[in-house]
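To whoever is on call:

I kicked off a structure prediction for a single chain this morning and the downstream step that reads the tokens threw a length-mismatch warning. I double-checked the sequence; it's 472 residues and nothing unusual in it as far as I can see. Pasting both halves so you can look.
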Amino acid sequence: MKRHRPVSALPLAAVLLLVVVPAVPQAADASGTASRIRPDPDHPAYWNYRGQPVLLLGGSVEDNLFQIPDLEAHLDLLQSVGGNYVRCTMSCRDDGNVWPFKEVAPGRYDLDQWNEAFWERFERFLRLTAQRDIIVQIELWATFDYYRDIWERNPFNPKNNVNYTAEETGLPMVVDSHPTRTENNFFWSVPAERNQPTVLRYQRRFVDRLLDHALPYGNVLYCMDNETSVTPEWGWYWSGRIRSRAGADDLEVQTTEMWDAWDLAHAMHNATFDHPRIYSFVDISQNNHQKGQAHWDNLAKQRARIAGQPRPLNNVKIYGADTGRFGATQDGQERFWRSIFGGCAAARFHRPDSGLGLGEIAQANLRSARLLTDRFPVFTCRPAPELLGARDPNEAYALSRPGEATAVYFPAAGEVTLKPDDLSGNVRLEWLEVATSKWSPPTTVSIDAPLGLKTPGPGQWVALLRSVIPVD
């Protein structure tokens, strides 16, 4: 079985041959580029939607939201607490889900015929999110649907369709291993790999139908996979196909890949970080397996890596809940806030079995984040750890707009000093208690010398210091 090839071994010329797309116009009327999600022209590390810079924040009860029955109420709840960002895996593995293809006999599908119920759900989801200005990050290939027990009933499995056999395609009928073993040839069909035209025909048919629905909507981001470990050519191929389809209609789209490696410095991630002509943003969700100071440091290294050509860094999955396997509830909340204070463009709590979903704790954090950003222009700010003194690891994090405002996030009760490099003289100080989403009454303090900042109580807090003249 072919294994992951280090991206550094791939020549750039080979990369560019994989994605040949028409040039995308940089301006359009209200129905075109200007109304679609794209990197902000003035602050390219953040997103712009409908002509305005936007910070994407979210949480939801499930990842394949288009398949849930109470979708509209869930989106309304998200919007009511300040959320504007959801994940959409094209997954069919849960009870009550439907597959995209017509079932012509029990457990047997015809890949040449659609199950319109699937596409009606998807179209409704796109329409409802667009109406609420909620940004959708679609994942084309829900990796775990193609392994183990889900592959057993997946229509693409040769034993489950009337269109091809295992002998014709080389696809396995049983895959008992974890996706990190990459033992399903389904992900090796593209021309730069096994070049399996029979499988690729139906894969393209599925993606093209998805694009028929999604491309008219400007609130969609495109991610190729969930936690993939295959070679880069697979994702590059699908990014190229999406961009080509969009370019033919004079539309601009944004694409990325999500790798399995938890370390953002792993060679897998090079295929995204090092190729902005292929991927216009970077999903760094797997960094959210890290904890404490390491979580921040890994983010900061990658942010510095692309500082010369900044792109949005998205976290469509913030792990961490007492009921899950990837850290405690406290870890989930900290990862969310460190992502914001680290200059990320998007942060979303993962579904409830591994994250905080859209439960009460997630709602409080979303409300508090919006209370902060309503008063503090994150788009014009920079992470500023150098401003903090007398600080222990993971004690506090600073985000600054030089000369005008600084915010300091405390994951728990703490005390640090703030240096007067960017703010001096009399400034207005307010404290935001994250758990209650409440501001303290403002006070005026002098910052001509290092200012001591001590949280007013236990729990998470944000200190906001602004010059007496309000920030725009």
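Update from on-call: the warning came from a stale cache, not from the record. Cleared it. Sanity check on the structure: Residues 197-214 form the longest helix (18 residues).
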